[in-house]
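queue> holo job accepted (pyridoxal-5'-phosphate)
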Amino acid sequence: MQTRDLSSHSPYVPGRGIEEVARDLGLDPDELIKLSSNENPHGSSPKASAVVIDATETTGLHVYPKASHTDLTTAIAGRWDVADEQVWLTPGADGAIDLLSRAFLEPSDVILESDPGFAYYSMSARYHHGTARTYDLSKADGFAQTAELVLDTYDGERIVYLTTPHNPTGSEFSREAIETVAAGVDEHTLIVIDEAYGEYSERPSSIELVDSYENIAVLRTFSKAYGLAGLRIGYAIVPSAWADAYARVNTPFAANELACQAALAALEDHAHVDRSIETARWAREYMRENLDAKTWDSAGNFVLADVGDAETVAGRSQERGVIIRDCTSFGLPECVRISCGTEAETRTAVDTLNKVLSEVSAQS
Ligand SMILES: *Cc1c(COP(=O)(O)O)cnc(C)c1O
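queue> job finished
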């Protein structure tokens, strides 16, 4: 027995978990600071946690999620002033990427994505029998994201992904650039704007464009600013013209009961989100100012830093209790990505990294 040919597929390599690392180092997980997966250092909204505990007793876990899905959809639609049918609720934004692949890709269709960039776009394309091409962001240009860069590379692909703020660099597209790309591609090309880090940006969401362009869809998630990464809940906002495709491609009840209820509570807990955004904005500035390495302006809840040898620096930093992301898998073996922690965690991380950096440079 064999699977189909999966030789072009590569597994997603996540940042390592705190328990794993603690076990390897013989440390208590509480002694470690994990800044490798862009999670919310303040945890989830206490209101969302309370709802999850309560839901296990009241609604119970034995019923399919129905009312909770409808309620969350309506709340998100209200938040963005779109119709309910334009909201595609999914297990994480990754789930939305899959549904868009399912709805749009025919076998051997091609998607266009940034390099460096987020691994899941091409993975999803391959799962759906498609392939991927890249537009290359230039380190020398500060990983600038421009319409020209995308359109010069564009060659009729079915889906073009724009990540803004961009992971792992933190750079952004301007509104003007996004509109230039949307207007500059062929009629059959869908532009997917990934706003997984949208809350941390100062720019308005591209959801405002969805009603003016039939070829723009926007991704959002509860995994980052809303602190619900463990529950897997996100969504796409899509144009009305083809919004009804959701019912034809969605896995039944893919967005689970606890996730829907928690997301609804989190959406209404403005204090928690505001605090999360405020801390991240402080932390990214603090890292930019105090890290003894070249860094880039970031609109997300993380900062990319050029440390020379990422594997060594991330390894030594981990031995000292601070887990950061080695960006070798992003094609940047000289860079690390450091997520914004709480104020105390961020200060400790910067101190630790600066010690590691001076130690490493003294040895070379
Ligand atoms: C984290 C992330 C996502 C989505 O993550 P989910 O947990 O699946 O919602 C999407 N795009 C980018 C660029 C990300 O960094």
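queue> The pocket of pyridoxal-5'-phosphate is lined by residues 92-94, 118, 163, 167, 194, 196, 221, 223, 229, 234 (CB under 6 Å).
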